[in-house]
Write a structure and sequence with these properties.
With about 100 residues, the chain is α+β, with helices and mostly antiparallel strands. The protein has a single domain, classed as Arylsulfatase, C-terminal domain. It is built from two helices and three strands, in the order E-E-E-H-H. A three-stranded antiparallel sheet has the order 1-2-3, covered by helices on one side. Strand 2 (about 30-35) and strand 3 form a beta hairpin. The longest helix is centred in the C-terminal third of the chain and has 21 residues, at about 70-90. The two termini are about 25 Å apart.
Length: about 100
């Protein structure tokens, strides 16, 4: 059967805007922020200074998680993830 025959069986929207399973990363300047969501929806964050630690061996999350810059990076990443889901759901395309 062609896939189009089963399109009506897909959830609508196919992807929700409140969960982003898997691993995402966001780089801003020298900082790289990792968002890792487990299968149980637990989220773990990691933060690295790429200029000082290009191999990402020293996680700075516990030392810097309360900085405004890190909060802004989290917000920027969330906005990007929401835009990715919108694209997957076809919301930014006109027929």
């Amino acid at each position: 059967d062609p896939p189009s025959l089963h399109a009506n069986q897909l959830p609508s929207p196919p992807y929700t805007r409140d969960t982003f399973p898997g691993h995402s990363a966001w780089i801003d300047g020298d900082l790289k922020l990792h968002r890792i969501e487990s299968a149980t929806s637990d989220i773990r964050w990691e933060l690295y200074d790429l200029a000082k630690d290009p191999s990402e061996r020293m996680d700075l999350w516990n030392k810097r998680k309360n900085l405004k810059e890190v909060h802004r990076m989290q917000q920027d990443m969330r906005s990007w993830l929401v835009s990715v889901v919108a694209s997957l759901n076809g919301e930014d395309y006109t027929p």
